Amino acid sequence: VRLVESGGDLVQPGGSLRLSCSTSGFPFSSYIMIWYRQAPGKERELVAWISPDSTTQKYGDSVKGRFTISRDNAKNAAYLEMNNLKAEDTAVYLCTGPSGYWGQGTQVTVSS
After folding, report:
1. Strands 45-50 and 17-24
2. Sheet architecture: strand order including 17-24
3. Angstrom distance (rounded) from CA 13 to CA 44
4. Which helix (H) or strand (E) holds 46?
5. What value does the mean pLDDT of the chain take?
6. What is each CA distance from 47 to 39, 62, 87, 88, 112, in whole angstroms?
7. Closest-CA residue to 5 (of 22, 24, 27, 29)
8. Which of 88, 99, 75 shows the shortest CA–CA distance to 39?
9. pLDDT digits (tens, 9 = 90+) for 39-75
10. Over residues 96-108, mean pLDDT
11. What's residue 69's pLDDT?
């Protein structure tokens, strides 16, 4: 099982980023995919999740209306579109699907 996050960057407040989670080694289309984030000194926070068939997406309260989760089962990939970024969105963003497997994360820094 392998998950690789990418797309993190330094962005100004109000900016946008699109994160990707590329996967292999498991039946991607059968799994809920979840994005978490972890900021220094804070607990890991659930950002969003998406059902295997993309019919259901749920978001943490802090990102509702700004972030959009999606997936492409043909590419075994999940995505997180982040708009109107705020300083408090600064964190390492991680994706997961099968229990216990994580990527290395991608750093998002929101700062002017």
Report:
1. unpaired
2. 2-6, 17-24, 77-82, 67-72
3. 22
4. strand 45-50
5. 97
6. 12, 8, 15, 13, 23
7. 22
8. 88
9. 999 999 999 999 999 999 999 999 999 999 999 999 9
10. 94
11. 98
The pLDDT value recorded for residue 60 is 97
pLDDT above 70 as % of the chain = 100
Q: Residue 33: what residue type?
A: M
Query: What phi and psi, each to the nearest 5 degrees, are found at residue 86?
Result: -120, 160
Q: Residue 19: in which H helix or E strand, if any?
A: strand 17-24
CB atoms within 10 A of CB 22: 16
Q: How far apart are CA 4 and CA 21, in angstroms?
A: 5
